[in-house]
Write a structure and sequence with these properties.
single chain, about 130 residues, globular, mainly alpha
Length: about 130
């Protein structure tokens, strides 16, 4: 999911800049956004996400107004208006990251069985009760 989140964020910033994404995705390679391929590692994806995050911050800081808009393709998964604001983009990226963090938490919980409550208690050095 880390790779997917970084890939999607980079694609949205490229779209806002009206540039092609770093990796063009379609049905033939969409599945690769959810797995490591060609020597990729968790460490390389963390570094890539750091780079993408820095590019996102630089772009958002560079626009004159969060109300500035950019075009989006006419596809069912894009907003029907055909344009979105930078403000919309920022909120969308927050939603995307939060959604995928939730997915990751579900996977983690299914592996280790610990709930969020238990993890908070562990972090605080208490056992509850």
């Amino acid at each position: 999911m880390l790779k997917h989140v970084a890939d999607v964020e980079q694609g949205w910033i490229a779209r806002a800049k009206q540039e092609p994404p770093a990796v063009q995705r379609d049905q033939s390679n969409w599945h690769e956004t959810f797995r490591l391929v060609d020597g990729e590692t968790v460490e390389s994806q963390l570094a890539y996400w750091d780079k993408v995050a820095a590019e996102t911050e630089a772009y958002v800081r560079s626009v004159p107004s969060l109300d500035d808009t950019f075009p989006v393709p006419s596809e069912p998964w894009f907003p029907p208006e055909g344009r979105v604001s930078v403000r919309w983009l920022c909120l969308h990226l927050i939603r995307e990251t939060a959604r995928h963090a939730g997915h990751a938490d579900i996977i983690r919980e299914s592996i280790d069985g610990a709930t969020a409550y238990e993890l908070v208690l562990k972090e605080r050095g208490t056992t509850g009760g």
